[in-house]
């Protein structure tokens, strides 16, 4: 498992440092935080004001889009203005489709990002009249590489001369035609798209390179970055990584998706700079990213977790751990949601949607019967067989568990409780569910260790993952819980979740369903894939997203993309069912999957036309 230095003990991956003006990244430098302006790069005043707000929020870098050479050239003006105002933040140019703009930008700012999917696509190579036989022994792949080199080398020359860093940024859904034909829109295709550019950089002795592989699908992002790290290490490369979930959206969903994708990789020690992409004001992204990084870094120097990795575990693709059926828990059923009301009595959820599958009451006396018919879980000491209540036992009460006649029994365990003797005893019982918790500083990793122990011992008992958080800050809770639970669910671990945080009961319920949705473990609502906006955005993204949500939030299970422009929109909303994409000022194009079905319609008609399109298909 070469993608990670240690599956159970936090260690930062050793990457090579990259100099980005006075704020280097990688190596032993801190994980850097960045955001991106969302106004036109030709509007110097607006860009300067946004940069200042982003820096004031605590960013280490600021990125700006440059669609063409005019925008790229104006980056120099923006840089000069902010320097005169005492702002020394390194600037990064974001380039798509335009190598000349990349070359111009490389002479204006400290770093340039290019996308291999649209920087140079050597799909159409002109062959001599005699075809392949007249190539003089040169293969088609070699010709393709030569064509990429022709496009890339002028940029590298400028970067070398001026000390400009380069980010090679691959996005899910925007692979080149050639890569799509060979690999499909897959992790392998994304990795190969990146690697052929990295190999050229290595051949040219250019080491000032940062890499990113992003997706709006958190699982695709996690697996692809893991595969990239493994592939790089096999070829002796250790370039630093930029982490981000594209089109994460806004509000709770945007924070959850970002923490699931970015946090899961940070917990494995992977990541040197992060950008949380929210469909909100750019400066809002910075404190979210900072909380995420700081939460993971609390694990530095933690007590070692002693565990053995299961040899059959595949970290590069999703496979849910097999488990037995215990009522509505386990054996491929969607993970259950258990709401913790141990600090007070549960409310009536008769009209709630979605509502929890169970309520945990701790030592509180259970209600019998409840109006909403939600089953209750209580401490074994207050369990009463005549109520709708299931008991939760401690390991010390294993004999009482065996004698209990309840239709469903829970056993609270931590990693160090799990041994062959205990599991053999439990295998004799029916309808047993493990209630997994951890008090370790690196709790998520210790719970991962528990699942590997179960796999090594051949146990198929279903497992509910439970964690309590001390924070009363909702955003902190979202970031922390989504990091921990996303880390486990992405590995295919967990048949249920129980998250508690003091008095934040309603927030915890929404959070649990949100995490399950973000990891594609359980779909309970409409999913929105929404870009954060940039200088290419063709409408007011925040108000448009709110309008689309208001009109479609009842469409459970659909994935709807709201994308600001056609440059990235159709590609990067890779697995959306429907898309609402900016096509021009005041104009929208509607997509069904990746197929454009209505072009350049007036913005004021677009939402109604989108709803009509969806209705026809339902």
Low-confidence parts: 127-135
**Side-by-side strand order of the widest sheet:** 1-2-3-4-5-6-7-8
- Distance linking N and C termini: 44 Å
Q: How many helices?
A: 18
Q: Give the number of DSSP strands.
A: 21
Q: Find the structural class using helix and strand composition.
A: alpha/beta
The portion of residues assigned to helices is: 25-40%
Biggest sheet details? 8 strands, parallel, barrel
* Morphology: globular
Which value, in Å, is the CA radius of gyration? 26 Å
| Beta content | 15-25%
**Average pLDDT for all residues:** 90
Overview of this protein structure:
The chain has an 8-stranded parallel beta barrel with strand order 1-2-3-4-5-6-7-8, surrounded by 8 helices. A hairpin with a 2-residue loop joins strand 20 (587-592) and strand 21. The chain is globular and about 75 Å long. Helix 6 crosses helix 7 and helix 10 packs across helix 14. It is of the alpha/beta class and 618 residues long. It has helices at residues 44-56, 69-84, 99-106, 116-119, 140-162, 177-183, 187-203, 218-234, 251-267, 285-297, 398-403, 420-427, 443-456, 474-490, 505-518, 541-552, 569-572, 603-617, and strands at residues 32-36, 61-65, 91-94, 111-114, 165-171, 209-214, 241-243, 273-274, 336-340, 358-362, 376-379, 389-394, 409-413, 432-436, 463-468, 496-500, 527-530, 559-563, 578-584, 587-592, 595-602. Residues 127-135 have low confidence and may be disordered. Helices cover 36% and strands 17% of the residues.
């Amino acid at each position: 498992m070469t993608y990670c230095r240690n599956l159970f003990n936090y260690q930062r991956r050793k990457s090579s440092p990259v100099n980005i003006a006075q704020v280097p990244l990688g190596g032993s430098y801190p994980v850097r935080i960045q955001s991106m302006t969302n106004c036109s790069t030709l509007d110097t005043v607006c860009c300067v004001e946004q940069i200042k707000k982003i820096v004031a929020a605590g960013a280490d870098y600021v990125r700006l889009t440059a669609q063409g050479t005019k925008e790229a050239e104006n980056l120099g003006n923006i840089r000069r203005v902010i320097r005169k105002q005492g702002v020394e933040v390194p600037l990064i140019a974001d380039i798509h489709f335009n190598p000349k703009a990349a070359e111009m930008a490389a002479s204006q700012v400290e770093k340039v990002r290019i996308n291999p999917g649209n920087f140079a696509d050597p799909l159409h190579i002109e062959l001599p009249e005699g075809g392949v036989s007249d190539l003089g022994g040169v293969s088609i792949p070699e010709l393709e590489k030569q064509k990429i080199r022709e496009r890339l080398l002028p940029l590298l020359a400028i970067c070398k001369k001026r000390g400009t860093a380069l980010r090679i940024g691959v996005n899910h859904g925007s692979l080149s035609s050639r890569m799509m034909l060979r690999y499909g829109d897959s992790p392998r295709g994304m990795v190969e798209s990146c690697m052929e550019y990295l190999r050229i950089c290595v051949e040219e002795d250019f080491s000032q390179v940062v890499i990113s592989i992003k997706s709006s699908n958190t699982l695709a992002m996690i697996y692809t970055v893991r595969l990239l790290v493994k592939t790089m290490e096999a070829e002796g490369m250790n370039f630093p990584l930029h982490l981000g979930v594209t089109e994460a959206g806004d509000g709770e969903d945007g924070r959850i998706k970002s923490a699931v994708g970015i946090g899961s990789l940070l917990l494995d020690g992977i990541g040197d700079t992060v950008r949380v992409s929210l469909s909100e004001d750019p400066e809002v992204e910075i404190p979210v990213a900072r909380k995420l990084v700081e939460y993971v870094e609390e694990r530095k120097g933690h007590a070692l977790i002693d565990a053995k990795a299961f040899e059959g575990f595949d970290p590069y693709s999703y496979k849910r751990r097999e488990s037995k059926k215990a009522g509505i828990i386990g054996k491929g059923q969607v993970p259950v949601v258990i709401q913790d009301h141990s600090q007070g009595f549960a409310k009536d959820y008769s009209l709630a949607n979605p509502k929890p599958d169970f309520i945990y009451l701790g030592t509180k006396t259970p209600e019998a019967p409840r109006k909403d018919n939600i089953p209750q879980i209580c401490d074994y000491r207050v369990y009463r067989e005549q109520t709708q209540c299931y008991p939760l036992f401690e390991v010390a009460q294993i004999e009482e568990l065996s004698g209990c006649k309840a239709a469903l029994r829970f056993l609270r365990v931590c990693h160090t409780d799990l041994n062959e003797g205990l599991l053999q005893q439990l295998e004799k019982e029916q309808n047993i569910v493990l209630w997994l918790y951890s008090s370790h500083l690196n709790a998520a990793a210790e719970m991962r260790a528990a699942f590997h122990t179960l796999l090594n011992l051949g146990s198929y008992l279903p497992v509910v993952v439970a964690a309590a958080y001390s924070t009363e800050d909702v955003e902190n809770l979202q970031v922390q819980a989504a990091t921990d639970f996303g880390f486990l669910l992405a590995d295919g671990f967990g048949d249920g979740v129980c998250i508690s945080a003091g008095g934040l009961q309603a927030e915890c319920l929404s959070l649990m369903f949100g995490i399950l949705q973000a990891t594609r473990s359980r779909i309970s609502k409409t999913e929105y894939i929404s870009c954060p906006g940039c200088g290419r955005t063709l409408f007011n993204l925040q108000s448009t997203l709110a309008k689309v949500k208001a009109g479609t939030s009842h469409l459970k299970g659909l994935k709807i993309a709201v994308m600001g422009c056609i440059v990235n929109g159709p590609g990067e909303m890779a697995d959306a069912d429907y898309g609402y994409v900016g096509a021009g000022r005041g104009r929208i194009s509607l997509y069904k999957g990746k197929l454009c079905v209505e072009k350049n319609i007036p913005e004021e008609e677009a939402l109604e036309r989108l709803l009509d399109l969806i209705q026809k298909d339902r």
